[in-house]
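Page 47, continued from p. 46.
Same chain as before, 272 aa.
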Amino acid sequence: MEIEKVSGDYRPLILVAEDDDSNFKLIKAIIGKKCEILWAKNGEDIVNLFEENRDKAEAILMDIKMPIMNGLEMLVAQAVYAAEYFLGRKFEDAPGEVRRITAALRRETLNIALVGMPSCGKSTLGRLLAKQLGRPLVDLDEEIVKADGRSIPDIFAAEGEEGFRAKEAAQIARFGKEKGLVLSCGGGAVKRAENVRALRQNGVVLFIDRPVEALAVGGNRPLSSSAEALRTMEAQRRPLYLAAADAVISNTGTLAETLAAAQEALDEIFDS
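Result:
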């Protein structure tokens, strides 16, 4: 926990929860001349700061995704403690109530983004997950085609991979802001860091991992023209999939087994 104070006349006290130093420096540059700032790098510390300064703090700025306790859990904790403080309502197990409400909100609001190699099973698993969970399914490749009016091979032929990636990034940014969706992502979505940030800003990411030998060659996929091309692509992208993912789902058994593994992983993520 670190503290930043601004000298001078009265300044409102702002609590800032942000685990990224560069983001905090930006916040400090914007409000630091007029405010006193207390800075915490995780949700647990900001809750402690709020407890210590509840009579003085004017506002809390927070990142929704943080270590130890995320921004959503912190918001719920504030609501529970505010109910106790202002309404006189006492919870027998306040931390347990925070966890229960947070888990329910995560299940309702977080998107589920599926990433992985072309033909790894994202679209099929996405349809099944969407049906099982009662969520809308968004196939991002289909959204690119709808928005552009051309097929993916035609976009590649006319504008190259960079042109396609720009269109892909626009759709990911669009749907990453939504809630409660199942997002089936193109195989190369993780190549841009901005896409990963957009998928994770209000979602969890599942890497659908299928052996490269089982992936389809050719078809309507411009970058999967040969087995060798697939192996090279998989070697390049695998570290990106692993870095982006909240969980890895092995797709080597039956579809029912893969679906069950995805559901088990989601239950663990939502309840954590």
